[in-house]
Design brief:
135 residues; alpha/beta; Rossmann fold; 2 domains; 7 helices; 5 strands; phosphoglycerate dehydrogenase activity; oxidoreductase; D-3-phosphoglycerate dehydrogenase; NAD binding
């Protein structure tokens, strides 16, 4: 199975993937344009999604699966992929823990009046640095 990636991970990770999945013929490139003809003959394409156009999809002959390595698929030509029977998967939920942590941090900051605390700290620091307040 020919697998082309427009994401160029570090060499160590590439070698690990090749070792762990010997049935795949992996090709890694820095962007879809660098992939050239390899992309058009691929069965699986790994991408962040922003480099893939409808024109690219229409020129493929063997593409069966697109793996989008991000949560969003706004840039993917979904209708064209559906018409050609190409499966699309993504990294849905990849940001769920960081987003939950961020939301909790914002809520705690609001409850603890973090903005007011920083304002008062800044005023104190200015007073100390200007010599108006002594420690």
């Amino acid at each position: 199975m020919k697998i082309v990636s427009s994401i160029l991970p570090p060499e160590k990770l590439r070698q690990e993937v090749i070792r762990d999945f010997p049935e795949g013929d992996f090709r890694f490139f820095d962007g879809i344009e660098a992939a050239g003809e390899s992309f058009y003959n691929a069965e699986v394409f790994i991408t962040y999604g922003e480099d893939l156009t409808e024109e690219h999809i229409n020129k493929t002959t063997k593409l069966k699966w697109i793996m989008v390595m991000s949560a969003g698929m706004d840039e993917i030509p979904l209708i064209t992929c559906k018409e050609k029977g190409i499966l699309i998967t993504n990294a849905r939920g990849i940001q769920k823990i960081p987003m939950a942590e961020f939301a909790l941090g914002i809520m705690l900051g609001h409850v603890k009046q973090k903005a007011l605390l920083f304002l008062k700290m800044n005023l104190c620091l200015k007073g100390i640095l200007s010599g108006a307040w002594r420690m």
